[in-house]
Each structure stands twice: as structure tokens, then as C-alpha cells.
Amino acid sequence: MYRQILVHPTDQPLQRILWRDDPEAPLKSYQLRTVTYSTSSAPFLATRVLQKLADDEGQHFPLAEPAVRHDFYVDNLLSGSDDAESLAVTCNQLIAMLACAGLPLRQWSSNCQAILDTIPLELRETKTLLDLDHESSVTALGLRWEPLTDFLSFKTPNWKECTVLNKRTILSQISSLFDPLGLIGPTIAKAKIMLQSLWKLHLDWDTPVANGFALEWQEFHQKLSALAHLRVSRHVLRPGYDRFEIHGFSDASESAYGVCIYLRSIPAEGPCTVRLVITKSKVAPMGTQTIPRLELCAAQLLSRLLKQVQDSIDITATTYLWTDSSIVLNWISATPSTWKTFVANRVAEIQELTSHAVWNHVPSEDNPADLVSRGMDLD
User: Fold this and answer.
1) Bridge partners, 145 (sequence order)
2) pTM of the predicted model, to two decimals?
3) Would 34 be classed as within a structural domain?
């Protein structure tokens, strides 16, 4: 994508490089004329071109314009519709619109065969299982999509065997767990908590960990093999339902705090459908912090995550937020200036981000965010 975008001539001298094939050859000077990998501005420039394309060509491609403006992540398009007929027209408009900028769209895939039939064969994705992460290496735990069944699945991490287990190795392995939606959030949280326990021991990066911890980490790794059997429905919005509700939960423990958000689809008759949308967790600060303050940090995290979900899902839904901390509910219900700085700042942000939501109390035993805040094995 980057190499399809020409840099303005006045900026091209900023992309000059010196090169020679061997140390004895004279230096050559090259000037790169297109957007270049690894430069800080590259993702912005590429995304800005798409926005400009939507401005210039949107009137000619009215169905494609919103998708170009909102549904791209750099060079990846993730979009859809409840109506196959209109979506087929949108796809054709997208192909034509992007072709205007010399950006041909390839590797089309869909959970609807009727849509794929409208796409030229040479532009379709040939794989039946698609990796949704950008890391092709087998060491990455990538999120995968099965178009035919419309389920998301995971790759089991292929961590290299290491003779010495240290903090550096463990951090590298945790970082390779790719779970952008937090669908295995409680397991990721447990890994974070285990890593923080090493920080508390003040170990150097390459100091071997104790045998007890090494065995615990090995057991954690072995249980990740169950990821191969974990499959999650991609579709969280149920078509044909009358009303939708967003339910967000927050919780904190001494080790971490976490949140999770669900979407509840309510039909005119019959049972409701509830789908997990996203979870997120953070380890508790290493300094001493009271549980009510951690619960407040969890509520703040939930407020921020809710804003992201509301910006991403274009539906009208009543929003309910839940915490098992009566103290936090008391803080949120009052004017921020009532409290000291730590509480006041977080309450002000929570009130601003959740002004249209209703905060409620949920018993601890019924709070699903408890699983995210404490961590749990995958099995």
C-alpha cells in the first residue's frame, strides 16, 4: 500500500539514503519517491490518502464512502451489512473507488457465498481460514476467522524451548499472545500477574527464575494447547431483534483489575441473545493501593472501553454499567469536587464518558469481570 502512494516532490529529499553493495564500492545516493516503510509518518500518510479519497470520490460511490472512511485499518478492510444485495453493490463500488487511487483490493473473503460470487475470482482469498493479525510467524498467537462457519479461533503459541527461563523470555512469550478483543482475557490476566510477581522479586532480565515458578509457568504453557479447540462466534449483533442493550462490568482484586462488555439482543418474542464483545485487564500498581481505589480504576477503564465500543458499533442501545463496589457507586454519584484529587479526577472522567449510561450494583458472585481481575487457566 505504501509504495502506491507518491510523496510530494518537496518532501522527497527527506527520504534520501546512501547505499553501496560492498565496502569498496563508491557510495550512491538514492531518493525514495513513495511512502516508505518504518518511517513514523507512513501509517498516517496512508490512512490520510484514504480519507482524501473518500472526500474526492465519495459522491460517485455513495455506498463505498462510509466504508472507506471508517472501516479500514491501514490496508485492511473489515466491513459488512445485514443486506446481501446492498453489500454486493458496496463491494463493487469499493473496488472501483480504490482503483481510482491505484489501490486494488485483493484477498476478498466473506461468510456469504452470494457476495463472493460478485467478486472477480482473481481478487478472492483462496484460504478457508484467515489470520486476522499481521504476524505470519508461527510464534504469534493470532486471531483467526473461519468464513464458512463465521467463527473466530486461535493459534496455539509455538514458544521455543529454552534451557534457562528468565524475565526476558517470559515477557517475550507474553507479548506474543495476540488477543485484541480479550476473548481469553482471564488467561492473559493470569500471565500478567505472574510476570509482575517476578518484578516484585527485583530479578535482573537474564537471571534464571526459581524452579517453583518455572514449573508453574511450564504448566501454564501446557494448558494453552487447549486454544486449538476454542471457537467463538464472530457475530455479536443479531439481525431482526427489536432492542439492544450494552452491559459493562468492572472488578478489581489485589493483583489486577479488569472489565468486560456484553451486547444483549432482545426480540419481540422469544429468548434474548447475549454475546461477549470485549474484555481488558491491567495489573494493579506495585505500590500499596486500596481495593476501593482499584475498583475506581476499573470503573475508569470500563468507561474508556465503553467509548471505544460505542464508536465502533453503530447501533442504538441502552447502556448499563455494573460494579460490585458500593463505595465506587457513591463516588460516581457525587460531584467530583467533593473528593480528593485521586478520586475526583477519575470520577470526572467517568461521569463525562458515561453520561448516558446507568450505573448499578452487582453482587460479587454474579460479576463476570471477577474472572478477568483474578486471572484463570485456559481450561
Assistant:
1) 130, 152
2) 0.83
3) yes
